[in-house]
Amino acid sequence: MDEEQKLESELQRILDMVGNSDLSGMPEFSNPSNSQDIVHGSEASIDKSDKMLSLTNKNFRSREDLIEVARKIAFVQGYALVIRRSKSEKYVVLGCDRGGNYKSRRVPLEERKKKSASRLINCPFEIWGKKKRKLQGFWKLEIKSLLHNHEPSTDMSGHPYCRRFSNEEIMWIKEMSMAGIPPRQILSSLRQSNPHLLAISRNIYNKKAKILEESLAGRTVIQALLDELGGGGFSYNIEYDQEGHLTHLFFAHPMSIELSKSYPHVFLMDCTYKTNKYKMPLLDIIGVSSFNTSFYSCFVFMQKEEEKDYVWALEMFNKILGVHNQPLVIISDRELALMNAIRIVFPSACNLLCVWHIEKNILANCKPHFREEVDWVAFLSTWADLIKSPNESSFDKAWDHFEKEYKENATVLNYIRGTWLPLKEKFVSAWTDDVAHFGNRATSRVEGAHALLKRYLQVSTGGLREVKEKICLAIEHQFQEIKTQLSSEKVRVPHRLRIPFFKEVVTHVSMFALNELYKQHEAAKYGNLSSQCTGHFFKMMGIPCGHMIKDMKIQVLPLNAIHNQWRIDARLFNNDQHASLDDEDDQINSLLLDFKEKNEKLPILQKDDTRRQLSQFVGTSFPLILEPKIQPHKGRPLGSKKRKESSSTRREPSKFEIVENSRKCSVCKGVGHNKSTCPFLPFGNG
To answer: What segments bear the compositional bias annotation Basic and acidic residues (predicted)?
Structure first.
C-alpha cells in the first residue's frame, strides 16, 4: 500500500467513526505524508478530497467531539488546527495554527534579548462548530474557508499544538515529577506508552513550570511553602529580616519527629552546601536507629553559620524533642560556632568530634611539613596511638612521647598543641570510651546522608519549596525502610541464636545488637578475652561485654541488660502525618474546654472583651515573606581559578584533598613548589 492509499484509509476510518457516533476508539496517527489529493497553488491550496466537507453532514454529540475529529483529519492532511474564538455552549471557531499575523510588542525587535521567530502567515483556513437546538443540542460543522496559503507539513513535530500532552499524560508528568524523576526519563516513559508522542524535553520543562504555577494558586513561593509545611503536619519556624526576606527556615517532617523521639540518644550534625539557588547553608541533623541505620531528624536553612544561627536552629530542634528526650551524645566537626551552640542549648549532652575530619585536618595542615613519606607515615602512626590511649595516664605518657618525637618540627607540634590538645576529651578514647555513643565517633553518617539527599536534589539551583519536596521523598523512603525492618525483625529468629542465653532478647532487640552480643558471647564461651575488663564496650554500646557475660554465670540474659537504643519490641511506627502533633492537639483541646467553661461564668462585659481578643487573634494575618537573598557562598577552597557557576550539587574539594592531589617536588617530596624552586637545593637546578 502506497502513501496515498494509507492516507485515504486513515481518513476514511475517522469518518466511519464519526458516522457511527463512536469516538472512543479514535486512533493516534503518525506524521502525515504528502497527499496527492492536495493541490497547491502559488498563493493558496484547497482540499479537493472533500474529507473536511463531508463533516458538514455529520452530527456531533459535543463540542469536544467536533474539535477532536476536525483536528485529526487536519493532522492526517498535514495541518494543525487551533481554537480562534469560542463561546461555551454556542459556537467554536477553528483555524490553521499558521493563521493570523504577528503582533509586535512594545520592545523593538532590535532591542530584544531573545531572538525569536513566528510561524504566523495569515493562513485563511477557518471552520465553525455550532450547537443546534433544533437538532436536540447536537453540534454541526460549517465551512468558512478550506484554503491554505502554505504547503502541508510532512513532519508535524514542528507544530506546538501537536506536541501537547493529553490529560492522562499530564497526570503522569505530575506524579513522576513528584517522585523526583528527571524530565528526560519522564519523556522516555511517556514515549513507551505512546510511540507517536511528538513532545520534546522542553515541553516537559514547560509543563512542569505550568504545574508549578497552578500549584501556587496566586501565592508567592514562600507563602505556598509555609502553607504546605503547616498543612502537612510539619514542625517549622522562620526568621526574616527587616525587608521581609526569609533568613532562616527550620522544619521537621512528622515522620522524622516520630523517629527522633523514639531514638533521642545520639545525633550527628553538619552543614552541607550547594542545595538551593539562594546558596544558603543547610544544617542536616541525623539520628541513629535500633538497626544502626541513619535517619533525617530535621533540616535548617540558615543565612550564616554563626553561633546565633546555630543557637536558633538547635533551640527549634530542642522543642520538637521535648524535655524527656534530651540527647546523650552529639557528634560534630570542629565548627566552633556549632560547638558553642551545642553547649548552650544541650548543656548535658556530650559533644564528640569526628575523628575522620580531625585526621583530614591534620593531613591538610601537617603533611606539607614532612619531606619524606616514611616520616609522614610514622607521624600518623604516633598520632593514632595517642588518640587510642585507653586511659588518662596512658594518654599523658603518649603525649610526652609525641612532644619529644616532634620537638624539632615546631610548626606541627604547635598546631597539634594549640588546635587539638584542648579538645582531647572530645575525641581521645580515654574519655570517649566512657560515653554511650553506640559506636559513632565520626560524622560519616552525615556525609552519607548529604550524598543521598543530593541524589534526590539532582541540581543545586532549586528553590526552597522544590528542595523541601525532594527532602520529603528521601525522608519517606527512609521511614518506610525502618518501618519494614522493624516489622521484619520482630518475627525473625536467627538459627545460631536459638539457644537459651538469647531466649528473652530475640525478636525484642535489633539484629545489629544481637550480632554484637553474639560476638561477645562467643568470646566469653571460648575464652577469647583480654586479661582485664575496662567496661568500655558496655558503656559505649549498651551491650554486655564478654567479661560481663562470663561473670554473670546465667543461662538466660535478661532483656533489661540491653540499652533501650537497641530495643524493637516497644516501638511501633505509623504513616500518620499528624501523629506527632497529637500531644499538642490534646493540650489545645484541653485549653479550649477550660476557656469555654470559664467564659460561661464571666460577666457580660468581660465576655465581650474576651470575644474581641479571640477574634483579633484568629484574624491575625502573617506578614508577606519574600524569598531569601542570595548568600555569598562559604564553600571550600577551590585550588583553582574562578569557574563558571554550576548547577551541580557536587561539593568542592576540601583542603586535605587539594593537599593529597598536589604535585610534589621530586627532590624533597614537599608540596607548593617544584625542583627548580626547591629550598633544599642551595644552588637551584643549574
So the answer is: 645-655
Q: What is the rounded CA–CA span in Å between residue 282 and residue 270? A: 8
Together in a domain, 236 and 327: yes
* Same domain for 455 and 315: yes
Mean pLDDT of 83-89: 90
β 81-87/329-332 pair status? unpaired
Statement to judge: residues 157 and 183 lie in one domain: no
Q: Please report the DSSP string for 141-172 in residue order.
A: EEEEE-EESSPPPS-GGGSGGGGPPPHHHHHH
Is residue 437 a part of any domain in this protein? no
Per-residue pLDDT at 21 exceeds 50: no
Beta-ladder partners of 268:
286, 331
* Single-letter residue type at 220: T
Q: Is 593 a member of any domain?
A: no
| 29 in a structural domain | yes
Whether residues 199 and 124 fall in one domain: no
Per DSSP, 626 falls in state B
Distance of CA 394 to the CA centre of its chain: 46
Whether residue 322 is found in the same domain as residue 304 = yes
At residue 42, the pLDDT reads 35
Q: How far, in Å, CA of 224 to CA of 349, rounded?
A: 37
Distance between CA atoms of residues 30 and 306, nearest Å: 61
Domain that holds residue 550: 495-566
The residue among 97, 25, 91 whose CA lies nearest residue 63 is: 91
Asked whether residue 378 is domain-assigned, the answer is yes
For the record, the C-alpha cell of 19 comes out as: 458516522
Q: Does one domain contain both 93 and 185? A: no
Q: Measuring CA to CA, how many Å separate 70 from each of 133, 138, 161, 241?
A: 21, 16, 14, 57
- Residue pointed to by grid coordinates 482540499: 47
Closest CA to 294 of 270, 327, 266: 266
Paired residues of 127 in beta bridges: 94, 143
Q: How many CB atoms lie within 10 A of CB 173?
A: 24
> What is d(CA 296, CA 9) in angstroms, rounded to the nearest whole number?
60
Residue 376 has pLDDT above 70, yes or no: yes
Q: Are residues 347 and 363 in the same domain?
A: no
Cell readout for 644 is 563558571
Task: Count the domains in the chain.
Answer: 5
> For the ranges 132-141, 340-349, 503-512, which has the lowest average pLDDT?
132-141
At residue 95, the 3 state secondary structure works out as: strand
Is residue 578 a contact partner of residue 233, using CB atoms and an 8 Å limit? yes
The pLDDT confidence band at residue 463, using thresholds 50, 70 and 90, is very high
- Measured in whole angstroms, the distance separating CA 652 from the mean position of its chain's CA atoms is 19
Domain boundary among 566, 600, 625: 566
